[in-house]
Amino acid sequence: MTHNVSVEVTDGFHLVIDALKHNDIDTIFGLVGIPITDLARLAQAEGMRFIGFRHEQNAGNAAAIAGYMTKKPGICLTVSAPGFLNGLTALANATTNCFPMILISGSSEREIVDLQQGDYEEMDQLNVARPHCKAAFRVLKAEDIGIGIARAIRAAVSGRPGGVYLDLPAQLLAQTIEAGHAQRSLVKVIDAAPRQLPAPESVERALALLKGAKKPLILLGKGAAYAQADADIRAFVERTGIPYLPMSMAKGLLPDTHAQSASAARSFVLAEADVVVLVGARLNWLLAHGKGKTWGKPKQFVQIDIAPTEMDSNVAIAAPLVGDIGSCVGALLAGLDGAGIDKPDEEWLGAIAQRKEQNTAKMAALLDRNPVPMNFHSALRSIRDVLKEYPDINLVNEGANTLDFARSIIDQYQPRKRFDSGTWGIMGIGMGFAIGAAVTSGKPVVAVEGDSAFGFSGMELETICRYELPVTTIVFNNNGVYRGTDVNPTGGKDVAPTVFVKNARYDKMIEAFGGIGYHATTPEELARALSEAIAAGKPALINAVIDETAGTESGRLTNLNPQSAAKK
Ligand SMILES: Cc1ncc(Cn2c(C)c(CCOP(=O)(O)OP(=O)(O)O)sc2=O)c(N)n1
């Protein structure tokens, strides 16, 4: 006689969801399709949030900014090949910016891909991903899903955070596995991003260098914001009395109105400082590689970074401090009293104050003007004055002139509230970051967008409306990329490469999805619309008409454009 013993089984679909939830991950950003539609349905049915997008790059950007805000990897889920490739830009950008995220894509079976037999959406995704992310893994057996998710989480957040690719062939999801065995295969990641303490001698060396400094400067990078060591970083700045300069996404670690902020004297302090403490700021193109006329006189650098190989990347580092930023800053603070470091010279502080006063007066003169139509400055003054009333607002910002001017005009008062084009200067992060920030924080978001930049992700207005997110998008509409005045030299029918439809009404776009559209032609109209939109807490778009002649090609990066011989 045979006995039918029923064995409870589960499958790969359920195991992926169980493994994510087992590690306290509650949200997936993605775009459904073969073979992951049912995975998205199941995630939602099992109590996770699945935020469905209109393009995978925006879902990836939302996952990346969620990782930056929480220090837990954001999850992006896509279909194979084209969907994976659309997500790959966001994965690469996350890795470049050190945002922890995991791109999970369905894929074709190995035996078909490796024989190149022409499967539906066939691509060797694991090998395509590898050069563009921090780590990449593939899972072939259901019992390995738990360890695969664990490896991806640890790789994304440990050491220097970044993007991780996890390849899930379609048949893995349908694989069945005995339920008890499945449960035992789950892995809860313990201490995913362990503290990495600096060597005592490195701390002493750094403090000794600071002791000898006459014109010290602290430079805060977005790594300092990511570290969530806000109190210690503020204490280090305030106890040393050293002037500081925040990179754009580090703004708000101390309020931009802080007396020690040297932002209004940026060029002066970079050129004149003698010892510079880099806190989670890499000496890449954003800091002129630490050399040349931007940096003027020879400097000595203290560099705090979690990656030892970051040291000497561009210039010699006199005092490398390798470890996680919280541990490094904490060690400096602990050694401060015993190091006998004096407050900076009054002459140095006075020179900075004078330069700040001069530059602030120049900016005030620009901001006080009220040209018709608006220019970047009058529009940004209006936004600045409204946002002053919302110190915890999330601000997304991209464009060329819109990015450059907003960075110095709109003050930040709290850390991890400004999200922008970052290390790559990438366009297209706008709506993805806005959705990621709104879903992650549950708080209002204002996205200040160049009209070209907005165009990269504008279809996500429907996503914002569908989830009723408190996102107000302000489109700086100057009729084109950088500006709207270029002309086709041939006189032909085609407009110039940088010009858009004149006087477009982007506010009508959001109305198509039930959002609130505003059309603003003056700073007063802009301020009124912005205040109303934030108070309403609903999806809104303000079409801000900006003088089409106001832009500069490539904003402050004009010098990066190669000059064609014909132009010389
Ligand atoms: C993905 C991508 N494509 C193209 C660019 C080149 N680019 C582009 C296309 C910009 C848009 C500038 O136009 P805008 O209207 O957004 O901004 P402003 O009007 O504020 O100058 S800024 C910039 O560097 C980029 N950085 N990233």
TrEMBL record:
Biological process terms in GO annotation: fatty acid alpha-oxidation; oxalate catabolic process
Pfam families: TPP_enzyme_C, TPP_enzyme_M, TPP_enzyme_N
Positions of the Thiamine pyrophosphate enzyme N-terminal TPP-binding domain: 12-127
Thiamine pyrophosphate enzyme TPP-binding domain: residues covered: 402-543
Keyword vocabulary terms for this entry: Lyase, Magnesium, Metal-binding, Thiamine pyrophosphate
Example of a GO MF term: thiamine pyrophosphate binding
PANTHER family: 2-HYDROXYACYL-COA LYASE, 2-HYDROXYACYL-COA LYASE 1
Family assignment from sequence similarity: Belongs to the TPP enzyme family.
Name of the protein in question: Oxalyl-CoA decarboxylase
Source organism of this protein record: Pseudoduganella albidiflava
